[in-house]
Amino acid sequence: MLGKSLKITRLNGIDIMLDPSWFLIAALIIWSLATGYFPAELPKANPATLLSLATIAMLGLFVSIVLHELAHALVARHFGLKVRRISLFLFGGVAELDSEPLSGHTEFWIAIAGPVASLCIALVFWGATLVALLIGASDPLRSVLGYLAALNLVLALFNMLPAFPMDGGRILRAWLWVRSGDLLAATRQVMAVSTALSYALVAFGLFMAFSGAVALGLWAILIALFLLAVARSTLANLEEKKAFEGRVISQLMSRDPWTVSPELSLAELVNDIFLKRAVTFAPVVEKGILLGYVDTQIVRKIDRENWTTTKVNDVVESSSDQNTVTYDMPATDFMAKILKTGRRKFLVVDAQGLAGVVSLSDMIAILNVSSEVG
Fold first, then answer.
1. What is the mean predicted confidence (pLDDT) over 335-356?
2. Residue 147, Cβ neighbours under 10 Å: how many?
3. What is the pLDDT of residue 154?
4. How far apart are CA 85 and CA 78, in angstroms?
5. CA distance 99 to 82
6. pLDDT digit string (tens) for 235-294?
7. Is residue 59's pLDDT more than 70?
8. Domains contained in the chain, CATH given
9. Which strand (E) or helix (H) includes residue 9?
């Protein structure tokens, strides 16, 4: 998402959110329809009519995308998955689930629901177009209905491309997942296909741009870059989950870290601990009681000429929920805390006090080893 989403309504217990980027695509759609599509369909229409029709068609697209995503959400609920919200943004919409589907069969039915819904909507608009023709409705009405019928058909077919996170990519992953029984392996295979299609889309975009269709070319390139970013993020999240599954902090932390006394001067801290021991973070302990920590970033805020007269106790960062974790915290929860706080190193405590330290680099090392051994 590009910004803070705006809640516009709530359908069947699901919040419908609108990202600020949606207003950009809505404006572009209205402009392109009012200056291109509808003038070609209705050459005698005046500008005000064309603008009104373009706005109605854009709102029809908005409703169509919401219904597409709502179909995903309702099927996900049927399989016991919690749906946080439906968000519309620059590249379309997404039904945000709290967790991945539990099986390939579940993912298939959730993924296929969207294109099926779009096909049904296309049929409804196509039927409405025929009725409008039979009863002699106005040309503008038939033009809007026909556009929405064609648009939903394109939406259904485009979403079936096997590029993640599009519905076709999820359907392909579901099939591979059922065959292999391995979600991570299936995801890696789909990501390879998705990457190839994304690069092909970039090539197509460049060709169209140099052929004169600059807007279409740039749009294709933007979609390709979005698909690449989401695919890589999805794979990274799954690899992280696999690597840390069942692990707790006590299995990942560094035990018996170098500790320092609060009475130590910063000069002694830098020379005898940081430089001599090659560490940048040290818990501060007095008589077995954990007071907090001190690190190189804290020391750098103090002028060097004051290091000999400044004690650790003067600059110690007191231990708190923000910089402390328990030894039995799940590794996945710890990664979430890193993202939430922005911190890279944490104190680890147990019933006796300080148990060790754990850092983002420890987690990255586990990820690297997990990736190396497959």
1. 87
2. 22
3. 92
4. 16
5. 8
6. 877 777 777 777 888 888 888 888 999 999 999 999 998 999 888 899 999 988 999 999
7. yes
8. 6-160 (no CATH), 249-372 (3.10.580.10)
9. strand 6-11
